[in-house]
Amino acid sequence: MAGTIMRSVCPYDCPDTCSLLVEVEDGRATRVSGDPEHPFTRGTLCPKMLHYERTVHSPHRLTTPLIRTGPKGSGQFRPADWDEAIERVAARWGNIIASFGAEAILPYSYAGTMGLVQRNSGHPFFHRLGASRLARTICSPAKDAGWQAVMGETPAPHPDTVADSDLVILWGINAAATSIHFLHGVREAKKRGATVWLIDTYETPTAAAADRTILVHPGSDGALALGLMHLLARDEQLDREFIAAHVQGFEEFASRILPLYPPEQVSLLTGLPVILIEEMAASYGRANAPFIRLGSGLSRYGNGAMTVRTIATLPALVGAYGRPGAGCFCGVSTGSAFALAEVTREDFMTKPTRIVNMNRLGHALTELSGPPVMGLYVYHSNPAAVTPDQNSVLRGLGRDDLFTVVHERFMTDTAAFADIVLPATSSLEQSDIYRSYGTYCIQRARPVIPPVGGSKTNWEVFALLARAMGFDEPFFRQSADNLIDHLLAIPRSLREGIDTARLAEGKGVELRLPAVAPPFATPSGKVEIFNPREPEPFPRYLPTHEEKGEHPLRLMTAPTPFALNASFYEQEELRIKQGGMRLQMNPADAAARGLADGREVTAFNRLGEVVFSLKVTPGVPAGVVVAEGVWWLAHTPGPRSVNALVSQRLTDRGEGSTFYDNRVEVRGGR
Ligand SMILES: Nc1nc2c(c(=O)[nH]1)N[C@H]1C(S)=C(S)[C@@H](COP(=O)(O)OP(=O)(O)OC[C@H]3O[C@@H](n4cnc5c(=O)[nH]c(N)nc54)[C@H](O)[C@@H]3O)O[C@H]1N2
Ligand SMILES: Nc1nc2c(c(=O)[nH]1)N[C@H]1C(S)=C(S)[C@@H](COP(=O)(O)OP(=O)(O)OC[C@H]3O[C@@H](n4cnc5c(=O)[nH]c(N)nc54)[C@H](O)[C@@H]3O)O[C@H]1N2
Ligand SMILES: [Mo]
């Protein structure tokens, strides 16, 4: 007998935020499919979510609290009940606070679930505790900083408006892996005659959706944008009227900055032939509605914010901002659709506490003093796998005097280092309210199955911890649904006039689309090529950290279609689809090193060594190697995964990660 169909939301860190139809039989999810009624995702699921039930009911799910019995990292635990586990945490934290102060406790969380309540449910607790705060900058703060420097708070156009474009530029985005529903609009545009370019550092699966794939040197996109603008100015392919009315600082930019970037110079920086740069500029200048869809990869460099800032400047020269089907889409910022401060409760902090950058966890655990980190609480994140400089993170997690609690669905690389592991529910077992960073949809989810085993939601665990720590604020005694109701009761302009009945039914609902501009949401109301508040008042080309580096090969730590960061590695079928943990290399680089396809190789730099199986492919240019996916150590060919090769250095603005700004050398064998 077929089960009941219930609605839920994909909780993962993806711009699309699909609505799900879940078939439930006897309290188990038996099948998951896309919801055709969702305005943006239209019933299609990605390869990762097709069998979400295999994650939810995986035999590897954690079902009971665990207490460490063996050495740190050995993965030896005994089961315990919740009371014992919570009491131990509270007692140990009490001791740490007495000896070192509450700032010796560090929460570490990111994006295992994107729901607003479950994702942020630790904030009020740790604010109340007086713990150190975490700067959650692993993903794309440099992209935000670069966009904001030019466009302020100007909202993105509706993603489906790409269908009205005649020149679509997928710039540093592997949309076939990370944003498949955006490609729907791209296909529509193509049907109407648009040309599609992909600009990346290697031929990703998205190349199949593009008419033309343009491969640049890593981190050089800012130079390309400057070169295109140089040519637009030289050839008078400018929208002078738009510039005069809506752009700040163009004349000085054109006279002082653009002359520095003639095509010959840009060719040296990007590796593109002069004739191609000329051709690109002419096509961009001629297009009626050029639409840039900007990914985050190119922002994860020492010059990442400046690169995004420079690219965000380009559409202004041809007046593409505000024109239907044109402009630049970096991601939507619908954060203001909800009063998030009601969830995060910064007012629970009695004084502003120390802020620790999550990209530098290795440093925080091994070198930070005043006070040192003595207690670490990890929830919906897997720092042993996803965080830069894996060797330093693992050294930190291995400290005998560090008390680590990990709230997880699986025995991840991080959980294996815990003193206490707490079992977490999956999204199908919890209530939440979702927004999205790639669409204007919101959606409410309620549990569709009971918790698997003894697992608990983030929200519930913080309620237990609050009680154990003696916090008596009523806030900690409400349910997640109470808080969601409260959020929905606070009016916000983005939610004005939305279909609340649909929302209550659990369906995806579109917010009111903000007017894109002009005037632009910047202090001047204009596109700010000149921005006096920035240390660099004009966009220009900045070098990456590794422009000139010790090793010859630039390492791309790219996403795979068959996993999401270090999530989904519990599904064997998806690991098989990835073809194992591979390093992709150009045939010339492989030949120069005497390396054959399928061989075991070691990539190394000053930070570490990682074993891969080699995939030789002309899709990767010489001088670049590609490692897709963030593998769990349980499934790696050697003792480390890719982030052992990634440094803790930060971006130029925004204190972001620099995952793509690393070099390696590669040798055969281990
Ligand atoms: N299947 C899948 N989906 C995902 C994820 C995943 O891991 N797998 N991750 C999720 C998360 S957390 C995020 S933030 C988003 C990210 O989504 P995207 O922004 O699409 O992905 P990124 O990893 O940021 O990088 C995208 C591309 O940037 C390219 N790139 C790197 N350096 C450069 C450069 O210098 N110039 C150019 N032009 N391109 C460059 C990489 O080769 C890669 O193809 O995707 C989300 N969705
Ligand atoms: N080499 C390389 N490294 C990367 C990236 C890359 O592309 N390449 N991408 C980077 C980016 S953009 C990002 S955003 C980060 C992502 O970093 P993370 O957000 O840490 O990513 P995940 O690996 O998805 O880990 C999330 C964990 O949360 C758990 N989880 C899921 N739901 C819940 C829940 O409801 N409660 C609890 N307690 N746990 C839950 C999952 O089981 C999973 O282990 O990774 C970064 N690291
Ligand atoms: Mo991310």
Task: Write structural notes for this entry.
There is one protein chain. Among the domains are: 142-333 and 524-528, Dimethylsulfoxide Reductase, domain 2 (3-Layer(aba) Sandwich), CATH 3.40.228; 553-668, Beta Barrel (Barwin-like endoglucanases), CATH 2.40.40.20. Helices cover 28% and strands 18% of the residues. The protein is built from 22 helices and 27 strands. The strands form seven sheets. A six-stranded mixed sheet has the order 5-4-17-16-15-6, with helices on one face. Strand 18 (432-434) and strand 19 form a beta hairpin. Helix 8 (221-234) packs across helix 12 and helix 8 (221-234) packs parallel to helix 13 (304-317). The protein is globular and about 75 Å long. The model has no long low-confidence stretch (mean pLDDT 97). One ligand MGD is lined by residues 13-14, 139-140, 171-174, 177-178, 199-202, 204, 216, 218-219, 221, 295-298, 556, 558-561, 563-565, 660.
In short:
By secondary structure, this protein is α/β, with parallel strands linked by helices.
Give the topology, please.
Elements: E1 4-9, E2 19-25, E3 28-34, H1 52-56, E4 66-68, E5 77-79, H2 82-100, E6 105-109, H3 116-120, H4 122-129, E7 133-135, H5 141-151, E8 167-171, H6 175-178, H7 182-191, E9 195-200, E10 212-215, H8 221-234, H9 240-246, E11 247-248, H10 250-257, H11 263-270, H12 274-286, E12 290-294, H13 304-317, E13 327-329, H14 341-344, E14 355-357, H15 361-366, E15 375-379, H16 383-386, H17 390-397, E16 403-408, E17 420-423, E18 432-434, E19 441-445, H18 458-468, H19 480-489, H20 500-504, E20 509-510, E21 527-528, E22 553-556, H21 572-578, E23 582-585, H22 587-592, E24 600-605, E25 608-616, E26 624-626, E27 662-668
Parallel strand pairs: 6-15, 7-14, 8-9, 8-12, 9-10, 11-21, 12-13, 15-16, 16-17, 22-26, 23-25
Antiparallel strand pairs: 1-2, 2-3, 4-5, 4-17, 18-19, 19-20, 22-27, 23-26, 24-25, 24-27
Helix pairs in contact: 5-13, 8-11, 8-12, 8-13, 11-12
The protein binds ligand MGD (2 copies) and molybdenum atom.
Molybdenum atom binds next to loops.
